Every structure is written in structure tokens, then in C-alpha cells.
Amino acid sequence: MSKAAEIDIASVSKVYGTTTAVHAISLKIPAGSYCCFLGPSGCGKTSTLRMIAGHESITSGDIRLGNMVVTDFPPAKRGTAMMFQSYALFPHLDLIDNVAFSLKMKGVDKDVRRAKALDMLKLMQMEAYATRRPAQLSGGQQQRVALARALITDPEALLLDEPLSALDPFLKIRMRAELKKLQKTLGITFVHVTHSQEEAMALADIIVIMNDGRIEQAAAPRQVFERPATAFVARFMGDHNVLSGRVASSDNGVLTMAVLEGQSFSVRGSGRQVGEAIDIGIRTDRVRLQEASEKTLGFNGIVSNIEYRGASVKITVIGAGSDDFTVIASDGDYFAKPVSVGDAVSLSWAKEDAVLLGRVSA
After folding, report:
1. 106: pLDDT strictly greater than 90
2. CATH no. for residue 302?
3. With contact defined as beta carbons under 8 Å apart, do 32 and 4 qualify?
4. Where is the signal peptide, in residue numbers (predicted)?
């Protein structure tokens, strides 16, 4: 059983020339956890992973693995192993020699390293293919070999750079389950970079959402889903609508926000000044669709798009300053009272389903 290590990222920045890719981020990744870095292309997540691995130098700040500062250590001395997006297998070597390669570089005896490589292939259920070469394997099989090669060094943390991006949708789902099972079996810290919200939600104990080189939120998947910290998180995760306006009043822990179109909305919260710009988030699956004549807690709008998704229907509405306010209705609810593009509708939600969103300081 490998030992797990806490990863402590302390005020770490990465600057390329005049461009700051990562802005003094700080984060503690608990030992033995599955952590997913999530965000759009260019947000700094891969640069952060490569700095943890030692494949990218740190401009300022420190990275600690367990109780050791590894900021200036080369990759091989850090106690981490990295699995690259391309898998980077050697085409001329069989699977045993591919997996054993790092031990060969360390001068481990041939019989010892080959025996350990075969053990790792057994862990990945790939021992039957031990004498094959990478070109004779499917994408999913190549991924297992790359994982075996990364894990043979008994790392304290395994770093994964978009490991599922090259796989077809069905295999992605299967390999997700295998990665989670492997992490629980080994008990080591996994740090996984992805741009897929679904992947991060399915795998992670902690999701770190990055945008423009900063951490917008680092929390458990359920907290990210139910209480997004910022408007960016709410929009990026796709499960909250965002309405923007200014504080009209503050009374007894309830803020009233006015939007440019004239409507006002209540949200629980305090510490904001009258006239201050604020954002609120409303869960897409908690919005109710009603006829425009009915009394509503939300606003009236116009249906701009409808997508049938099997168990649910996604209805997009224009109104209250939003071009893409979304309602996720069950198929039963929708077809009991269907609407069409161009229809005027009323939307409503309960006060407890609105979340006051924060802002990330520059």
C-alpha cells in the first residue's frame, strides 16, 4: 500500500514573459483525496499540475508534498508520478518494458523490475497483453499501461493531465469508474486536470475551479453544485442561472436586487451596500414554468429554445436581463403543459433556491 501525501500549494505564481498564467494561488489538497482541477482552456490548470510535477518551474511561491518543500526538486525526486494526455508509450517496447522503464533508469535489476512491472499490469488487468506493443492495444488498454507505468514508482501522488480526453464517450464512463476504484484501492492522492464538469463531479472529493489563473472555488462536488461561490462557477458548472443587478435594499438578512429591466429579486445575504453590483444564482431544476397570467415569484419572459433530453426538457427563456435563463423540467411536467418557442411564460422559484454569489478578488 502506497503512502499518500498532502499537497500544499502556497502563493504559487507562473509568469511566461509578460503573461501571468497563474496568479499567486494557495490550496491544500488533503492526503489520499481525489482532486480535480476544472476550468476552460487557458485557465492555468495544466500549468498548476505541471508545477506540482516539477515539469514547469515556479515563478514565485512554494509547493510542499507531505512535510517536504519540493519547489526546487526535479520530477524524479518529488514522490509524484505524472500520466500525460498522450500516454507517451514507447512504440518499440513491449508492455513489460514500457511499464518497467523508470525502474530501468534507476538501475533496478532486470528480473526485479520486470516482476514488478508484471504485478502492475495485473493490477490493471493487462497481464495477458504483457508481450504486446502499444500499437496492438485499444485506447483504453493504452491508458491502463500508462497508469501502470506511472504507478510503478510507488508515488505519494499521481498527477493526471486530461487522461480521458482521447477516449470515446462509453469508454470514458467505464474508465472513470476504474480510476475512482484504483484511487480508493491505492489510497494515494490523485490530482486530475479536466475541462469536463461531468467528469469532475463523478470523480472528485474536491473540485478546484480555475478561471484566468485564479481559483474561483475549491470545495466538495455537492457544495459546488448547490452553493457556487461566484457567477463564473455558477455559469461554468451549468446548473445555475445568473441574474445581475444592484442592491436596492438590505433588510434583516435579505437583500433586494434590482435589474436594468425593472424587476427586483430577493436573496438571503448581508454585507453589501445599496447600489453595489451583485449577482444571484438560481438552480435551473428549481425554476417552475407557469402561464404568464399566473402569480409568480420570478419574472415573465419569452421562450427562445427548447431541447428534449429524454428524462428532462431544457427550456431557454429571454428576460430580466438574461438571454439564456434556463429551466430544466421533467419530461412529465413539460408534456403535461408544453410550451413553444416564442411563447410568453412566467418563471418562479422559492427564495431558498436563490444563492448570493461572490467575486474573486483580483
Report:
1. no
2. 2.40.50.140
3. yes
4. none
Containing structural domain, residue 347: 231-357
Number of structural domains (the chain) is 2
Residue range 199-221, pLDDT digits in tens: 999 999 999 999 999 999 999 99
Residues 48 and 153 placed together within one structural domain of the fold:
yes
Contact 130, 94 (CB under 8 A): yes
The terminus-to-terminus CA distance of the chain in angstroms comes to: 42
Query: Residue 340: phi, psi to the nearest 5?
Result: -125, 160
Q: Are 44 and 149 within one domain?
A: yes
How far apart CA 206 and CA 208 sit, in angstroms, is 7
Phi, psi of 202 (to 5 degrees): -75, -30
237 class by beta-carbon count within 10 Å (0-12 exposed, 13-18 middle, 19+ buried) = buried
Give the domain-ending residue among 206, 226, 246: 226
Tell whether 198 and 280 lie within a shared domain.
no
Q: How far is residue 125's CA from residue 145's CA, in Å, rounded to a whole number?
A: 10
By DSSP bridging, strand 206-211 and strand 34-38 are: parallel
The domain boundary residue, chosen from 193, 226, 259: 226
Q: Which residues pair with 14 in a beta bridge?
A: 22
**Greatest Cα pair distance in the chain:** 80
Residues 175 and 315 in one domain: no
Same domain, 211 and 277: no
| Beta-bridge partners for 172 | none
Beta strands, E only, the chain: 7-16, 19-29, 34-38, 60-65, 68-69, 80-83, 157-161, 189-194, 206-211, 214-219, 240-251, 254-258, 264-268, 277-283, 288-291, 299-308, 312-319, 322-330, 344-348, 354-357
Compute CA distances 140 → 55, 164, 171, 175, 181, whole Å: 25, 9, 7, 8, 16
